[in-house]
Structures are given as structure tokens and as C-alpha cells.
Design goal:
alpha+beta, Peptide Deformylase, Rossmann fold, Methionyl-tRNA Fmet Formyltransferase, Chain A, domain 2, five-stranded antiparallel β-sheet, 11 helices, about 25% strand
């Protein structure tokens, strides 16, 4: 990164630039700024244009690099409305072009969602709606007034640089952004306009436009942790689908899902359908969503919906498939002492956790066995990071899904309350794994028989185990919640029994 190019946190980039007096065009100062702009844009292989504010000068001037003209003319862009200059031998000659006090005199009503980056916002790309054709009027570096038309990449550059002169960054106009630092074959990086050459970086949709619109299906805290990781990489869903609010707790208070709370906090559109029926399907079709992501949604999604998006439906599963398919892979990994764990991004098909693997990552857990909430947090974060890396490659057709080894499949079962019961006649290490696995809902528990002081009749009292350790082959219970009471140490509990 050239140190002379200001980055997004600079206040200068947010100021509206001032016009250059006509008698100052061609002055030593303006010539010096132009040379500084040329040096800055040439320092970056991925730079095709730069505005004066990006080098700290709040004046209305920008430069389109010879690299941009080479891209347009070299690709023989059929949309280009300008012709390349030629040298004495008739060969194409590419030169930098200066625009002083520019004005957009014509902007087409026809628009497209196109991918952009910026030298002042490193390694971030996003989709911005731009007019397909524009005409600009400006002065050159010698003070000569000219008019230039452009379409495709050139029209986009004009609009992007004019935004800079008005203190606007492309991220102000985009909803879907993602991080990228992958080098391109032609030598341009995914940064300033590089992916825009004939739409190379992101596959075009049916009408030739590039537009990534993600629907995220999720409900639990696992879903939220994945959304947070996506957000860090500027990948924001356009729509979130989660379950309806439900009664929760002893008082049965109507409570929204964690994912709904996240959507409201982040001002993302969400819906909570009871059923994924025709009205939902119509919305998904009408609004042009083209990638679905599922992470701990909790409902069966019909095949008619799974098959809708162009880029299909991806699922984040907290195990190394084909191991531990099913509803409880995290708890089951602990219960079955499955230390070789990780996360898988899979392509969803009609069968449970059966689809081809798009990406996977082994995750080493240093202290085994962890509590299930701790393991959920680790795997969700790793799953979110993996998903954020996978999405750009997936939509660019750079990943070939790999069929699972179905003969090696294992399954996790649906957890029942009685599964969390501790039997002290069982193996102590199994009981310890139960305590670690059942640390939320249900909680690990055992019963003791205690006489009622009034009636002297004996009754079973449920004791929830909240903490324990396993040392030298022995299970040591540390803290418990006796039925109807607050949490106490196990030593205090035993004293109360005497």
C-alpha cells in the first residue's frame, strides 16, 4: 500500500473538494499534484484511477490511468465510446488522462449493479449501482475544455471518482461487500475496479449484471456467531429468515430468536414464516436472491426453495462430514469423545447433511473435552471464517464440490432430557463427558432420595451439575444446583445432607 494514498478513516476523504480557479490550471502547484497522483496510482498494480483527495488535496481533479485505457482498448470493449490514440506507426498509445473541475453532463437511466474496490479501502470489494453510460465535461492539465463519453468500465470510473470529489466512498453506496486479496491472472488485484473488466471476477447473472444477494437461514447463537464472522469480512445478507418468536422459560415469555435480535440490531430485513410455503418462495424469486446460506435454522427447507438460487444453497455444519451428521453434532462429539472435529461447508441436497463438501477445516481443541457451549462458540467462529473465505471462490466457480464418503457416515441423535442423567455406576469419564456436553439444555443431573421433614416420606430431588473435573481417573463434582435452590459448591451441598 502506497503511504501517500489516504485510507478510509482520513477526514480529508469526507470533505467536498473545491474547484480549481481557471488561472491556476497549469501552475507549478497543480503540476506537482498531478505528478504526485501519477506516482501514487502507478505504485499500485491494481490502481486504474485516483482522485486528488486520495493524496490529501481537496481540489476537484482526478486522473484516469493509462492502465484503465489499456484494459478497455485491449479488451476491445464494445461499449467504449472513445477511441484509443495512435502513435506515428499506427500502434495504440495509452496515456494518463487528467480531469479538472469535472461535471457529469449526461447519466443514463439504465443502471447495473457492478463490483468495485478502492485504493483508499484496501482488500474490500462491493456491489454498487451505477449508470451504464455517462458523459463528462472537464478541463485537461493545459486548461483546454473537453467532453468525453464512456460506458462500461469508463462510465463506472467517472462516477466513482466524482463521488470522491464529493466526499463519498463506494462503501456508502453498497450493502454487499466482501474481503479479497486474491491475485488475478492478468496481474490486477481485487481492489480498485480490477474485477470490472468484462465482469471477470464475479459470474454475471442472466441479464449480464453482477449482483450477490444472500439469504441467511438461522435461529440459534451458533447462527449469530457465524453472522458476526461474515460481518467482519463485510459479507452482509440481504435477508434473514428465522423462526417465529416462541414462549421460553418457566414463565413462558414470548422470546425472539437470537438471530432475529441480531438482524434488528444490524438493521437487516428479516422474516419469520411459520411455513416455508408459496408466499415465501414468491418473495425469494421476485427479489432475485441468488445464494442461500443455512446455519442452525431448525426447520426443514423444501427442495423447491433449496433449488431457487443460482449459486445454490450452502450449509455450515459443525463436524467433519460425513462424521456426525444430524441434529446434535456438537454434544455428540463430546459424548463420543470424538477429538477429531471441525467444520464443513456443504452443498445442500434433499438428504440430511448428505450433500457434496465445498470446504472443510479441522479445528484443534486444546483442552478436551470442552463444554458444549464453548465448543459451539469455537466451531461457529471457525465456520464463519471458513464461509467468508469460501463464498467469493464459490461464486467464481473456483471450487469443485467433493462427494462425501457416505460409507463412513456416522450420525448424531436428537437429544432427550433423560440423556443428561448421570448414573454414578457408569464409567466416570463418560459421566464427565456428559457434564461437559449437557451444560445448557438439557443440563446434566442426578437424583438423590431425601425425606420430607414434615411427612417423613422420601422423594427424589433433582440435582443439576454445573461444573466438574476429571483427574487421575476420578470424577470430581465442583458445583451444583439443587432443585428449587441456587447454585452452590458441591462441598456445601454435601454438608447440607448430613
Amino acid at each position: 500500500m502506497d503511504k501517500n494514498i489516504l485510507q478510509k478513516n482520513s477526514k480529508i476523504l469526507r470533505k467536498k473538494s473545491e474547484k480549481i480557479p481557471l488561472d491556476k490550471i497549469g501552475s507549478k502547484k497543480i503540476k506537482g499534484i498531478i505528478e504526485k497522483m501519477k506516482k501514487a496510482v502507478d505504485s499500485r498494480d491494481d490502481g486504474v484511477a485516483i482522485a486528488a483527495p486520495q493524496i490529501g488535496e481537496t481540489i476537484r481533479m482526478f486522473l484516469v490511468s493509462k492502465k484503465a485505457f489499456k484494459i478497455i482498448y485491449g479488451k476491445e470493449d464494445p461499449l467504449a465510446q472513445v477511441s484509443p490514440p495512435e502513435d506515428a506507426e499506427g500502434k495504440k498509445k495509452y496515456e494518463d488522462k487528467i480531469f479538472i473541475n469535472p461535471e457529469l453532463t449526461k447519466i443514463s437511466k439504465e443502471k447495473a449493479n457492478v463490483e468495485e474496490g478502492c485504493l483508499s479501502i484496501k482488500e474490500i470489494c462491493g456491489l454498487v449501482e451505477r449508470s451504464k453510460k455517462t458523459t463528462i465535461k472537464a478541463y485537461d492539465e493545459n486548461g483546454k475544455l473537453f467532453t468525453m463519453g464512456g460506458s462500461g468500465l469508463m462510465a463506472q470510473i467517472f462516477q466513482h471518482e466524482m463521488d470522491h470529489l464529493d466526499g463519498v466512498l463506494f462503501t456508502d453506496k453498497t450493502k454487499n461487500t466482501w474481503k479479497t486479496n486474491r491475485q488475478k491472472k492478468e496481474g490486477f488485484l481485487n481492489d480498485k475496479f480490477a474485477p470490472l473488466e468484462a465482469g471477470r471476477n464475479m459470474p454475471a447473472d442472466s441479464n449480464g449484471e453482477k449482483n450477490l444477494k444472500i439469504v441467511f437461514f438461522g435461529t440459534s447463537n451458533f447462527s449469530v456467531l457465524i453472522l458476526e464472522e461474515l460481518k467482519k469480512e463485510n459479507i452482509i445478507p440481504s435477508l434473514i429468515i428465522t423462526v417465529p418468536d416462541k414462549p421460553k422459560g418457566r414463565k413462558l415469555i414470548i422470546t425472539p430468536s437470537e438471530t432475529k435480535i441480531w438482524a434488528e440490531k444490524n438493521k437487516i430485513e428479516f422474516i419469520q414464516p411459520e411455513k416455508l410455503d408459496s408466499p415465501v418462495e414468491k418473495k425469494l424469486v421476485d427479489e432475485g436472491f441468488n445464494l442461500f446460506v443455512i446455519a442452525s435454522y431448525g426447520k426443514i427447507i423444501p427442495k423447491t426453495i433449496l433449488d431457487l438460487p443460482k449459486f445454490k444453497t450452502l450449509n455450515v455444519h459443525p463436524s467433519l462430514l460425513p462424521k456426525l451428521r444430524g441434529a446434535s453434532p456438537i454434544k455428540s462429539a463430546i459424548l463420543e469423545d470424538e477429538k477429531n472435529t471441525g467444520v464443513t461447508i456443504m452443498l445442500v441436497d434433499e438428504e440430511m447433511d448428505h450433500g457434496p463438501i465445498v470446504a472443510s477445516k479441522n479445528v484443534e481443541i486444546k483442552s478436551w473435552p470442552p463444554k458444549s457451549l464453548e465448543l459451539e462458540k469455537i466451531l461457529a467462529k471457525e465456520g464463519g471464517k471458513l464461509l467468508a473465505k469460501t463464498i467469493p471462490c464459490w461464486i467464481n466457480n473456483e471450487i469443485k464440490p467433493k462427494e462425501q464418503e457416505h460409507e463412513l457416515a456416522t450420525y448424531s441423535k436428537k437429544i432427550k432430557k433423560e440423556d443428561a442423567l448421570i448414573n454414578f455406576d457408569d464409567d466416570p469419564y463418560l459421566n464427565y463427558r456428559k457434564i461437559q456436553a449437557f451444560d445448557d439444555n438439557p443440563r446434566a443431573y442426578f437424583f438423590i432420595e431425601k425425606a420430607d421433614p414434615k411427612t417423613l416420606a422420601s422423594k427424589n430431588i433433582r440435582i443439576i451439575v454445573t461444573d466438574a473435573k476429571f483427574e487421575s481417573g476420578e470424577l470430581k463434582i465442583l458445583r451444583v444446583i439443587p432443585e428449587g435452590k441456587k447454585e452452590i459448591s458441591y462441598d456445601e451441598f454435601q454438608k447440607g445432607l448430613r
